[in-house]
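FAQ

Q: What does a record look like?
A: Structure on top, sequence underneath. For example:
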């Protein structure tokens, strides 16, 4: 089966295109295009960038970009390994072992019978001599003391709870709805608060006092809203975009 790089290289050569032609049309660096065609994926910084480049490159050549990404994922799966089951240990079923087991069982039965006989003889000799102690009559049982009834007037009156203050909203708010898998880095008031992959269908909101900086590795996969105003997508699929939002 052909690899992703071999398919893209073959299709580019069929169309008579150079690496520079593809770079000019897709904004993908020539270094990354050559790396993809040679299946040298370690050159590209990050899995999100790599999948976006493969998708955009394939779409430009008239291929199905998502099918190329799926093929790349299959090629990265490790081969399955098979393990031989260990042999079952052989059981010793010799006549000698069977005889020794039955002989030991007889001794156990005889020992148990001897213990039962000894216990019965001891009970016959000591059980008749012991007489139950009769309780002495004429001593009345002490009367139970009743606990004093507490006055209901002493119950404390609960103080009213303080009224809850409404939560204060910060002056800068950004909401992002992700329609596809995307790498994101979020900086709030100069401090990074999130960095990683976001799954498709996720809805994220960030708030700040001054600024919110949003960096997306797949800009076409997220629709943004700034302070209640729709911003839309910051770029196209596979494009890396950095956007700073203020008051």
């Amino acid at each position: 089966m052909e690899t992703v790089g071999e398919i893209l290289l073959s299709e580019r050569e069929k169309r008579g295109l150079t690496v520079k032609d593809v770079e000019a049309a897709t904004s993908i660096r020539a270094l990354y295009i050559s790396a993809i065609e040679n299946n040298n994926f370690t050159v590209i910084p990050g899995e999100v960038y790599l999948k976006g480049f493969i998708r955009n490159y394939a779409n430009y050549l008239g291929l199905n970009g998502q099918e190329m990404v799926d093929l790349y994922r299959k090629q990265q799966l490790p081969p399955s390994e098979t393990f031989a089951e260990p042999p079952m240990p052989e059981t010793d079923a010799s006549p000698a072992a069977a005889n020794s087991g039955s002989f030991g069982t007889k001794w156990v039965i005889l020992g148990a019978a001897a213990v039962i006989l000894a216990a019965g003889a001891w009970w016959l000799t000591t059980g008749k001599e012991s007489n139950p102690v009769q309780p002495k009559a004429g001593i009345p049982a002490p009367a139970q003391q009743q606990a004093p009834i507490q006055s209901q007037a002493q119950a404390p009156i609960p103080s009213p709870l303080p009224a809850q203050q409404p939560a204060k909203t910060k002056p800068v708010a950004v909401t992002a709805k992700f329609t596809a898998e995307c790498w994101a880095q979020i900086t709030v008031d100069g401090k990074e608060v999130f960095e990683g992959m976001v799954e498709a269908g996720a809805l994220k909101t960030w708030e700040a006092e001054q600024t919110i900086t949003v960096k997306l590795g797949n800009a076409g996969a997220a629709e943004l809203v700034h302070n209640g105003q729709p911003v839309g997508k910051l770029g196209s699929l596979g494009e890396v975009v950095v956007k700073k939002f203020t008051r």
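Q: Is there anything notable about this one?
A: The chain has a mean pLDDT of 78.
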